[in-house]
Amino acid sequence: MNEPKLFPLPDPQESLTMPTPPEERHPRLLRPNRQQVEWRPVALDALLPEDHPARAIWAYAEQVDVGPVHAEIRSVEGHAGRPVSDRRVLFALWLYATFDGLGSARKLARFCEEHLAYLWICGGVPVDYHLLADFRTEHAEWLDGLLTESMATLMNQGVMTLQRVSQDGVRVRASAGASSFRRGERLEACLREAEEQVATLRGELESDPRATSRRQAAARERAVRERAERVRRAIEELPKVGAKRREKNKPKREPRASTTDAEARVMKMPGGGFRPAYNVQFATDTASQGIAGVDVTNAGSDGGQLLPMAEQIKGRTGQRPKEMLADGDFAKHEDIETLSAPPHEVTVYSPVRESKRAKLPPHEPHPGESAAVTAWRVRMGTPEAKELYKDRAATAECVNADVRNHGLYQFLVRGLRKVRAVAFWHALAHNVRRILRLCPAGIGLG
To answer: Looking at the DSSP assignment, which residues form a beta bridge with residue 297?
Structure first.
């Protein structure tokens, strides 16, 4: 029967043909189409996991008193002026960046546009690298207070006792090269050259403004003027360098200072070489491994740093540590005598170095020494002191390694004031990590 059909039926002969060989088959693929427009109604908060560390950082930042920082803002409600970025956001960004080992303001500004955690912290608040760089280094005193508050949190939770404090210094490379160090005569020549360039540029700008764009001319003048100021600061540092050389009985070597970072000094680094660096001092509570004190010097030696750190801890907490552990470089007899006497009454545990001149037993009394120094010598020869001294490597060295792993291997800022502010950031970030691990309820995370 030849009845009409809705659809044509395949030829029965075609169904008997051979299948396509495997080598001639082409896979069916879904290929990317990056030109297609998509609308995704998703909140930024929904993209970040609930247990992400950025949320813990923001929880801590919400409890920080930013009043001293916001007091500097001139744009206030009821008066003319555009709103500015919340400084609490800047604080959380730098704290999380320190957690992340990020130390560049330019890189942080780029991360705020590309990475989810930084985008979440910003929450739409605009930032740029100029704003980030200035905020990082302009509030060292405020960060100092926050470090004290972090110590108070650890002490209130009963994990920081200050019974025993371990101190050590870590030498961090400065943002200057060895070739930037100049002697006095060369610095004077550099200053004269820079001042002549400033005068020439100003004359060109005033006489013929159309010779070049005013913006370019102003930028050139500013660059030369800043160089002249750096050279001037280097000249001012030369007497300090010379005085330090005379203390070390090296008066014949002519002092030099850096035209890049005048306050940096050439120090012997852990690898054995000599580099421009700063000496960062951390005092660590052995019970909690929280940082109880921080300071930055441009002295290559750790000698004389015990007493200032003990006084700093007293100023922060109202109490001095009962015991202080330090390596042999810290053991100056004057500091041991002062710390052992009232009102300090601090017991010092520091290795006794053998005298190169007098062949006397290191752990026995030496003639002419004070009773405090003799007690320290005898104490360090006992098995109890040697066993107790092991806590130094387990705490101070651990903290040094921790801050290095989080980016403190070279300063990207210049000058002792800015370097100290960066050291406070690292100390505060370390203590916040200890709070998150030991007592999360202390910042509302428990």
So the answer is: 279
pLDDT at 250: 63
Is 163 a domain residue?
yes
**Token pair in block for residue 56:** 């813990």
Residues 162 and 89 grouped into a single domain: no
Are residues 322 and 365 part of one domain?
yes
- pLDDT at 433 (0 to 100): 92
3-state secondary structure the chain: CCCCCCCCCCCCCHHHCCCCCHHHCCCCCCCCCCCCCCCCCCCHHHHCCCCCHHHHHHHHHHHCCCHHHHCCCCCCCCCCCCCCCCHHHHHHHHHHHHHCCCCCHHHHHHHHHHCHHHHHHHCCCCCCHHHHHHHHHCCHHHHHHHHHHHHHHHHHCCCCCCCEEEEEEEEEECCCCHHHEEEHHHHHHHHHHHHHHHHHHHHHHHHCHHHCCHHHHHHHHHHHHHHHHHHHHHHHHHHHHHHHHHHCCCCCCCCEEECCCCCCEEEECCCCCEEEEEEEEEEEECCCCCEEEEEEECCCCCCCCHHHHHHHHHHHHCCCCCEEECCHHHCCHHHHHHHHCCCCCCEEECCCCCCCCCCCCCCCCCCCCCHHHHHHHHHHCCHHHHHHCHHHHHHHHHHHHHHHHCCCCECCCCCHHHHHHHHHHHHHHHHHHHHHHHCHHHHCCC
172 lies in which domain range? 140-176+264-414
What does the pLDDT read at residue 188? Answer: 82
Residues 343, 346, 350, 352, CA torsion sign:
positive
397 and 348 co-located in one domain = yes
The segments of the chain whose pLDDT lies below 50 read: 446
Task: State whether 268 and 308 are in the same domain.
Answer: yes
Q: What is the pLDDT of residue 214?
A: 66
What is the total residue count of the chain? 446
* Confidence (pLDDT) at 446: 41
Same domain, 183 and 172: no
The total domain count for the chain is 3
Residue the block writes with tokens 């007592």 = 439
Give the model confidence (pLDDT) of 96-134 as tens digits: 999 999 999 999 999 999 999 999 999 999 999 999 999
